[in-house]
Amino acid sequence: MQRTNISCLAASAAMFCLAVSSSAAGGDSIVPAAQFAGTTLAQAPNLPPQQGPATQFLPLRAAPASTEWSGQPGASGHPEMTVEAIQVAAANFKTCLEGLWPHAARRGISRGSFDTHAKGLTPELKIMDLIDAQPEFTKSVWDYLDILVNDDRIAKGRETLNTHRVIFDEVEKAYGIDRHVIAAIWGIESNFSTAIGERSVLRSTATLACVGRRKNYFRDEFLAALEILHRGDLRPEQLMGSWAGAVGPTQFMPTPFQRFAIDFDGDGRRDVVDSIPDLVASTANNLKQDGWASGQTWGYEVVVPRNFNFLLADRSRQMTLHEWERLGIRRASGAAFPRPNERAYLLIPAGSQGPGFLMLQNFRVIMKYNPAEAYALAIGHLADRIRGGGALVQPWPRHERVLTLAERYELQQLLAQRGFKVGEHDGRFGPITRAALRDFQAASGLVPDGFASSSVLARLRGQ
Ligand code: CA
To answer: What is the pTM of this model?
Structure first.
């Protein structure tokens, strides 16, 4: 669902960024967040890749607890996030919204609908604090999995499948998507509808369309939200969600909603909030349209031999499961790969000391839903557990400490000083930073697993 979820851990106000050493998904890693609302973790939005000046050693602020805007500039340092730019844009909010009317008209939205839903809106500047929030401490991939994949969520997943068995039967038949994966998405995005954001998605997307550094992206989301209301798919009181605009138990952003939502119960409305048939079918359709391979799983936990060439553990290196086997990789369960000709890449989220995973096409599809590897791993693993599968076989390196934000900035800077390309100095470790780290490790005689441990940082410091 390319719901570029700004929502994820996000879903609501709460995502925390798994910026982690290990996650390293695309630029912004996120985590489903609705269910974390109320935690003290700072939350980082799962925003689509962004352009703009690099963030460098900006002063850290505690996330404000108030519902009011802090009146502080955004930590991104983006020119649209200065106090003055935010104030000017807020003062111009009505004019900005009216400027969107021609775009709305082109989408078939009536003037009446536009006035009804958009005219009385005011900006919620608090969102300017949230969009640039960057947690000083992030979670390790194992802590993340511990939180998201637990006995309670597994039990609720089974109960949900049981309660709605007929619907899941029909949806699985119509779309060919494994019901356990849909249940896992539902469970992780909103803890089975028990944690859904409480902000008006229309107000949030209108604010972000007119104020701050992501206007272009959110203009489309705002217009799509208006279109949803104009068509009557959702009523305004249903269009509630995260500050970043994701709505419903599986957290659809308005644009993916427009593309993927299905009226499966046939009442004329695509209601992904209160109709279970529509919710389940829409989520399935999203995965199907994103390229889900029916009858296949998402990936396998594998044992990587000692002295393996870890430079092969890269998303760009796809080989068949059979070819990986020839390099010495085995399923952790000891079973054979049922379809050895499927192509996979090797992911080692915690480096050479933790479990390996061979990731198939469907893992990439889950990552379109939310572009963080740790998120997709949690979905896949929770799906397996709901189905009756066991816990991961291999231990995580729980003694490893996750680097703080200041240390992540420092690590990127030290790599850059040594001539390695780290991409944006943003304290987040995406594929570019991870590749740079691997190159440094290889050049230093270390195992090149791309894992940002405190010992690698010490090595970079020359200690
Ligand atoms: Ca319906």
So the answer is: 0.85
